[in-house]
Design brief:
- This protein is α/β, with parallel strands linked by helices.
- It folds into two domains: 171 residues, Alpha-Beta Complex (Aspartate Aminotransferase, domain 1), CATH 3.90.1150; 247 residues, Type I PLP-dependent aspartate aminotransferase-like (Major domain) (Aspartate Aminotransferase, domain 2), CATH 3.40.640.10.
- Helix content is 36%, strand content 16%.
- The strands form four sheets. The chain has a seven-stranded mixed beta sheet with strand order 4-12-11-10-9-5-8, with helices on both faces. A four-stranded mixed beta sheet has the order 1-2-3-15. Strands 13-14-16 form a three-stranded antiparallel beta sheet.
């Protein structure tokens, strides 16, 4: 007899490729079927069979207030009652745009879209349209959505290899991949490469979060700002994950960097599909209908997502919010770090704010090259160990854990004990 979750997954596989609508949900290589969610509240999620899990995925970041926050539910329900979508302009779009602009000083205007992929795609189109240049610089290991221009990893020398079949070599010919956190190599490119005057923009996750949490080394982001200004290229911060997650003013606020364009997502939708690209008016005004760079979306600025996002931002800007969230994260991460140091465990925990990754097999991750040392088999064992004990973490080694303000001390302490038990009982560390 199949469980209800197993039966649902089996049926899904018949009508959905792999049974999932985003590959990372599949738990591929972990020896488990994917979690089939039924409901959630606070820091808990229940599967189709009624089993309860403490959730550290939080829908991959948007749920900074936790699942089904009453205030967010209330405004979303009220908006649905008035109209779930209109396909025309609404006041709630302006209100959320004004709120974001007040919190992110680098932005003067915003265009809402429905996903982070759309936001980064639009940012590249703006940069190319505004500068008249074609080439884009990205960094190895950084993920900016699944559109063709950025779905690429570096090969050797000048040869670049797409990370997916179906991506045209002609499209990625204009994408240059450089090593993250390599000050010398990146500066040398900007000072001596013959292609630099063709670069429209540099796009970067200021804190890499899709190869696990990897912080920039001292001076790296500042160097990018200086070099892009010098050569006339735009600097694009992809803060789809870090925006309003690492602080009220994003990563750009923490590092005091003023990018030309910023991509946001996750939290600004309050759990509903919403994202945005924003920046200086001189760049944003190249967009149609006032400029010649075209972008459109039927559900862009969806009023339910705008209402939920605005309510979320109202909660997180309350005094002490980020201090409380930081304290919760330290309550979990602190004991794990102590165990790592005490046991000489071959791994590391890298964290910023309420975002962290526990890496297996490497004592430090600075760039994509370091990922080759990771012990993915051990991570699979770790994931199953926690899953069996009612703890759900992102089902991939190179992803970030997300905490919410709803995580309770009891659940944080229990999770820390389980993680430490796994580390302490490894036969060989």
């Amino acid at each position: 007899m199949l469980t209800k979750s197993e039966a649902i997954y089996e049926r899904s596989c018949r009508v959905i490729p792999g049974g999932v609508n985003s590959p990372v949900r599949s738990c591929k290589g972990l020896g488990l079927n994917p979690l089939i969610a039924e409901s959630a509240m606070g820091d808990l999620i229940w599967d189709a069979d009624g089993k309860e899990y403490i959730d550290y995925c939080c829908s991959w970041g948007p749920l900074i207030l936790g699942h089904s926050h009453p205030a967010v539910v209330r405004v979303a329900q009220a908006q649905v009652a008035k109209g779930a979508t209109f396909g025309v302009a609404t006041e709630i779009e302006e209100r959320l745009a004004s709120k974001i602009i007040s919190l992110m000083p680098s932005m003067e205007k915003i265009r809402f879209v429905s996903s982070g992929t759309e936001a980064t795609m639009t940012a590249l189109r703006i940069a190319r349209g505004a500068t008249g240049r074609n080439k884009i610089v990205k960094f190895s290991g950084h993920y900016h959505g699944h559109h063709d221009s950025l779905l690429i990893k570096a090969g050797s020398g000048a040869f670049y290899l797409a990370a997916s079949k179906g991506v045209s070599a002609n499209v990625i010919a204009d994408t240059i991949v450089l090593p993250f956190n390599d000050l010398e190599a990146v500066r040398m490119f900007f000072r001596s490469n013959s292609e630099v005057d063709q670069v429209a923009a540099v796009i970067v996750e200021p804190v890499a979060a899709n190869m696990g949490v990897v912080l920039p080394i001292d001076g790296f982001l500042q160097m990018l700002r200086e070099e892009t200004k010098r050569v006339g290229a735009l600097l694009i911060f992809d803060e789809v994950i870090t925006g309003f997650r690492v602080g009220l003013h994003g990563a750009q606020g923490l590092w005091n960097i003023d990018p030309d364009l910023t991509c946001l997502g996750k939290i600004i939708g309050g759990g509903f599909p919403a994202a945005a690209v924003g920046g200086k008016a001189v760049w944003m005004d190249v967009l149609a209908p006032i400029g010649e760079v075209y972008q459109a979306g039927t559900l862009s600025g969806n009023p339910v997502a705008m209402a939920a996002g605005l309510e979320t931002l109202r909660w997180i800007e309350q005094p002490g919010f980020y201090e409380r969230l930081e304290a919760k994260t330290i309550r979990l991460a602190g004991p794990i770090l102590e165990t790592i140091q005490r046991t000489k465990f071959r791994g590391c925990l890298q964290r910023i704010g309420s975002l962290f990754t526990l890496f297996f097999g490497s004592s430090k991750i600075l760039n994509a090259n370091d990922l080759s040392n990771l012990d993915r088999e051990l991570f699979a064992r770790f994931f199953r160990f926690l899953f069996e004990r009612g703890i759900y973490i992102p089902p991939a080694q190179q992803e970030a854990w997300f905490l919410s303000i709803a995580h309770t001390d009891e659940h944080l302490d229990y999770t820390a004990r389980c993680v430490n038990s796994f580390i302490e009982n490894l036969p060989s560390r």
